[in-house]
Amino acid sequence: MKKRRKKLTGKDNDVKHNVGAFPGELHYSGDVTGNDIKITLIQFNETEYTEEVFYDVKSMHAAEKPDLIKWINVEGIHRVDLIEEMGKIYGIHPLTQEDIVHVDSRPKFEEYSRYVVAILQMLYFESSVQSEHLGIVLFTDTVISFQEPRGGDAFDIVRNRLRECKGRVRKMGPDYLAYVLIDAVVDHYFFVIEKIGEKIEHLDDEILTNPGKSVMVEIHELKREVLLARKLIWPAREMVMNMMRSETDLISETHTIYLRDVHDHINRVTDTIEQYRETLNSIMEVHLSNNANKMNEVMKALTVISAIFIPVTFIAGVYGMNFENMPELKSPYGYWITIGIMLTIMIGMGFYFKRKRWW
Amino acid sequence: MKKRRKKLTGKDNDVKHNVGAFPGELHYSGDVTGNDIKITLIQFNETEYTEEVFYDVKSMHAAEKPDLIKWINVEGIHRVDLIEEMGKIYGIHPLTQEDIVHVDSRPKFEEYSRYVVAILQMLYFESSVQSEHLGIVLFTDTVISFQEPRGGDAFDIVRNRLRECKGRVRKMGPDYLAYVLIDAVVDHYFFVIEKIGEKIEHLDDEILTNPGKSVMVEIHELKREVLLARKLIWPAREMVMNMMRSETDLISETHTIYLRDVHDHINRVTDTIEQYRETLNSIMEVHLSNNANKMNEVMKALTVISAIFIPVTFIAGVYGMNFENMPELKSPYGYWITIGIMLTIMIGMGFYFKRKRWW
Amino acid sequence: MKKRRKKLTGKDNDVKHNVGAFPGELHYSGDVTGNDIKITLIQFNETEYTEEVFYDVKSMHAAEKPDLIKWINVEGIHRVDLIEEMGKIYGIHPLTQEDIVHVDSRPKFEEYSRYVVAILQMLYFESSVQSEHLGIVLFTDTVISFQEPRGGDAFDIVRNRLRECKGRVRKMGPDYLAYVLIDAVVDHYFFVIEKIGEKIEHLDDEILTNPGKSVMVEIHELKREVLLARKLIWPAREMVMNMMRSETDLISETHTIYLRDVHDHINRVTDTIEQYRETLNSIMEVHLSNNANKMNEVMKALTVISAIFIPVTFIAGVYGMNFENMPELKSPYGYWITIGIMLTIMIGMGFYFKRKRWW
Amino acid sequence: MKKRRKKLTGKDNDVKHNVGAFPGELHYSGDVTGNDIKITLIQFNETEYTEEVFYDVKSMHAAEKPDLIKWINVEGIHRVDLIEEMGKIYGIHPLTQEDIVHVDSRPKFEEYSRYVVAILQMLYFESSVQSEHLGIVLFTDTVISFQEPRGGDAFDIVRNRLRECKGRVRKMGPDYLAYVLIDAVVDHYFFVIEKIGEKIEHLDDEILTNPGKSVMVEIHELKREVLLARKLIWPAREMVMNMMRSETDLISETHTIYLRDVHDHINRVTDTIEQYRETLNSIMEVHLSNNANKMNEVMKALTVISAIFIPVTFIAGVYGMNFENMPELKSPYGYWITIGIMLTIMIGMGFYFKRKRWW
Amino acid sequence: MKKRRKKLTGKDNDVKHNVGAFPGELHYSGDVTGNDIKITLIQFNETEYTEEVFYDVKSMHAAEKPDLIKWINVEGIHRVDLIEEMGKIYGIHPLTQEDIVHVDSRPKFEEYSRYVVAILQMLYFESSVQSEHLGIVLFTDTVISFQEPRGGDAFDIVRNRLRECKGRVRKMGPDYLAYVLIDAVVDHYFFVIEKIGEKIEHLDDEILTNPGKSVMVEIHELKREVLLARKLIWPAREMVMNMMRSETDLISETHTIYLRDVHDHINRVTDTIEQYRETLNSIMEVHLSNNANKMNEVMKALTVISAIFIPVTFIAGVYGMNFENMPELKSPYGYWITIGIMLTIMIGMGFYFKRKRWW
Fold this sequence. Notes:
The structure is a homopentamer. Mean pLDDT of chain A is 84; it is low at 1-7 and 10-20. Chain A has a 7-stranded mixed beta sheet with strand order 2-1-3-7-6-5-4, sandwiched between helices. In chain A, helix 6 (153-164) crosses helix 7 (174-209). Chain A is of the alpha+beta class. In chain A, strand 6 and strand 7 form a beta hairpin. Chain A is built from 11 helices and 7 strands. Chain A has helices at residues 2-9, 14-20, 57-62, 80-90, 94-101, 153-164, 174-209, 215-245, 256-319, 327-330, 334-355; strands at residues 38-44, 49-54, 69-75, 108-111, 116-126, 128-138, 142-147. The first copy, chain A, has 2 domains: 2-289, 2-Layer Sandwich (Beta Polymerase, domain 2), CATH 3.30.460; 297-355, Magnesium transport protein CorA, transmembrane region (Methane Monooxygenase Hydroxylase, Chain G, domain 1). The two termini of chain A are 45 Å apart. The interface between A and B is large, with 73 and 66 residues.
């Protein structure tokens, strides 16, 4: 039930935040508690690479080296004080801070004078579609990514590549790094719709072979998953589009083609989501129709039985009457003739119904 | 019933107003009566803060101080004469006055030479979606907000902040104040859809566990709420969009990012409303299908009983006939054989139906 | 039937006109016959006001005074010769003339070198949605409105205001007068959707309390009304939008805000129409579901009766058999035991079905 | 079946053409055979008018007079060689030639350096919606219209007007003539939707009074007609829109208002088609609901009969048992009391069911 | 099952690629295995034509002649190393390489400094809609087309034309060749929808004459085909649109009309797909309604039989009771009167039901 409540009505603190909060004041709206945070500072250029973990902002900030590209990954957007401290040091606008800590923020891209920020949702699939809030802030030589504490595995691949110096990412600027992070998130979207797709396939096979009783509920659950995925992914498309069209100097012109690529990927995901929605509707129609057909078959068969026996039972009833003067009863062949008539009627009706394909 | 009538056909005076009124002539179209009004004049800058309540326009106007930012909150748009008086003093265009007193006006943003005006609907949820009309007029150094008399609590939080000098609002211009008021209204939208979302969740749980008889009616009522909320919120999005794009000098360029934020919030609300609409449809389909299935189960079980007993009842009828010449009747084992045949038929049919999963 | 035929296939002469007519040739396509026409010439400025009725164009034209604003209301677009005469005198383009006399023209706004013209549909509600064709031609100092002869009451309010010199209309130019006329028409749209809304409300109450047999037909009729209203009102929105955006000198820049207001009104009407469409669908779903439920209840109850009595009837049948050797029959308590078994079976089944909520 | 196959899968040669043909190579894709062609050359100005019929291109071309406006109507797009010859003489681009002979081309307007071309579909209604392919090519002083051979009657009215020198068409340029031809085609669209509208009206009356068994099939057929009409007419709208916006010198600025008029006509047709689609859906819903209701009534009545007689039949069965010791049987009033109980039960159930409105 | 899984969840390696791959790193995502590749180098100008087959890139590249237009057809996008080699030699951007080898890429058109690339899907129909990935890269004097190895027949026609020097293709530049290749692909779309159309026609005939049990499943399968075709074709439209609007020098201005033509073709395909979708829905509605009607007929007939016999069976039961004092039993005509009453009841009910059209 919890899982479902989350989907429709957002995380718990949501209401309080929205109503009680003043614009620009920070209230974490997710459901993570505790004070654990972890700040990973990765500094690199084509030749150097260092990776350090800190548990407070100041010491991390002190460790930054001027000539390297810096990627600061902050796990712990539930610690509002931390975000505010980061905000002060790096000059992040309070509205941006709000978007970062508010886990239900809509994906968006915004330009500020000193930085640009992309807010988006990481999706993963654990029996249902789950989302995790992400904020990626891009400065001239620094990328800061903000995550919920449990997160992080989506970026592992990026980290590995940086370490191993594979790919172009070490050679290119922080905007390319930001793109790589967004690309990693969008790649996960495929994962999620793939999972939903498999479930739909499974359902599709099931309704044709051996539909269980809960098919409608499963369709309903899958529809909810699809609706949720659509709601979360759809604005990401707009976000990337705005990023592409942005005229900021922070994203170099030549890297726009990479964003175009991400945009195409999201388009493919949303195309697929639409296809799934319609497929689910079609599956539901088949299922309902199959159900109705099966029911009809049963009812027809059963009713045919009644229809065949009721008339002959009536005849039996007639000759079971106790009138004194019933000449047929005395006829020595009366019984056999009656039985014969009954069988004739039954067989006749059976044939008639058969010919009319009533069973 | 009253509640519902309101939703579909607007407040009572609506028709009369629309048909009988001449453009630019004021007729209050809400359902508040009485003459009670209340004008709150709040004047502040970064250091000063005064808050006074007046019950007529002139004395309020006399109390204004030139160097402070003024927020005039007028509770009482049902007193048309009051609005006209305000209009004359502050130079508010008759069409704007009309939009302010006409409680069914569509949310909109309009620019006039001396001011800009935002008309919108405050939503709250008291067993159903209720709306309250609001007008916010922004001058160079003054913000006038017009409300229905029962209203006001949505702005309490703003007032508290001003008093306590929390947040940025005391340091910034009247355009920021106007933004804060609009933001407070939009925050309430989340409240309302949250409530609807909870009801939908409740319904969703209910149909899977213990659906009552009135589920369809509840779905219908929720659909109406969702449709109403959509109708009221949708144009607000356009309103904020127009406000963002406006080139008026009254809204400083640097504050546009705040409006962008409000716009994102409304987008999130409308995304959620669409999700709710589809979820309600899906819930309805599950409910109808469950209903049909349950009915089918019952009918099948009952019909199977008939089908099993009717043939054997016929046999009993046959041997209940009173023919004189029925040799079986005289056989000492006739009865037991017949009983045996009957049981065989019944058990056979029972197995057959079982195997065919007819019950 | 007549009423309905009108809605879907247009007025009777429609086809003949469309196919046989040549562009720019006038054929009245409405269903008014007779030769009665009435031309009302109202001339006014801020101080003067004259109102004269004429029955031919020439004498009317002769009565025009150069310095006054002139409003010529022509009732009688069925008299094509009249429109042609007007066209020659005032320089109205043949295509405009055609739009004026063709009662099924789509609402539109068009600019010509010497005038602008607004074609629209007046709606009223007499047991169903009815429309009346209107053309408003605006010259530098003259407004000509063309109506079908039965029309006119929508403009009475405007006439009264002019006479009584109330409102701004006497002080302002002919473009304001044209706006006031269009506003009067759009105000009537609210009237019509209000009526439809009341009918929908009525239906909504009815289906929950005491649905009649004709509910589906009523829903169907209301859907037709809503579809018709939508078809007629929708293009009016575009018309006003074009009028707003027009760069003609005939409409002064400062009056555009009035058109913006009309545009908002039409938007509100179309929002409401969409809401009605969806509400009707929802009502229909509730109604169909209620119907099915009620039917299911009945069938279940009736079938339960059969299911309870059929097995015990079989037992009775068994002991009604006439075998000579049926030991139970001779037992002194056989009858009572049998009755007991029967009652046990019946009560047992009754309880079982009850527990399973089958009735 | 043939008729229908045409609708969904295009004319027979379609596939072969599409797959086998190379761009710019001509293959007639319609189903007309034979070699009959007919070229009508009409030359006119305000004072002169000549009309000649030719059966080959060269002699026709030789008969052209330089100072007159020329309208060449070619009946016979199935003769690809003819079109190629025309193309060479008049400088028509191969792609245009292809669009002309390919009878399933989408309506479109294209500008070439020396001419503009409008491709559209003439619709007529012969028990179902039929289409005929048309191409209208406009040069500086010549209009060439290409038709399938059976066609032509749509243009008769234009020809008559030219002959009789009625209307403006003789006084104006070839662009006006082209407009008049397109207008004649669009006027026919009204004809077709009028016919469909009548059929829908008929169906609507029928379902309320005396629905036949084939109502669903008729609705289905009408939906197909409406879908086909929409598919054919919709792109024509875009075509006229492109024509209006075209900046070609061949269409004089002052004639754009005529195209605007045609555009409005098509808009009206498409509005009506949408209305029809929704009306058909509504009719279907009413029909299905009526059907279900009627069925329900029957089933209820029949089941009530069973429910009333089954319990009393059971009682009769009890007293038909042959137990030796059944004291009631010996009671002199037993029979009458039993009959009384039976009647009481039957009447009681009858009343109960009646009160519950079960029949 | 395999076939279906492919449709919804993409080819097998898809997930791995998406999640594990880094942007710009190549992983073939199709299901072709083996190392077979085939590179066809066609070089031509208006007078010359050579065609050679190679099995490695270098020898092919060495065979290129500077003055001819070159068409390199690479069959074997599963060999990532090959694509990388081609990329190095011809300067193809890694993202383009990725789009080429990733067989589920969305159709798109992209401009790079040295070339433009069109990614699209070839469709063919082998019992279901199948797709094949294609990439067409256009340089100043070279066209490179990348295919999956099994492909190729779609381009046969182009090759034949080049060989036979038919059509314009030999005389025009490489951009025309690229257009011709795209046109060949789009022509195949007609093929596919034609096939689907035929199946829909077949189904449409079938449901009216002799619907099988699997009609719903067939409708479902066809819907899936239509959805898949739509998903694959829809973005191709955008692709061609982008190609038309592109301002690259590689596509000469005068060839844009050819792309306009392709665009029209795709539009026609998508129009038809929409028509199919709605037709399938309509067919389904007819089918479901027919099914329900047939069932209703059967149930009514069977229930009428019960309703007629149950009352008379009751009467028989009454006179089968064994009360000692039942005067009717002794009446000599009692039996005949009873039989008469029974027949009267049965015939009466029969007539009554007949008149009410219950059977």
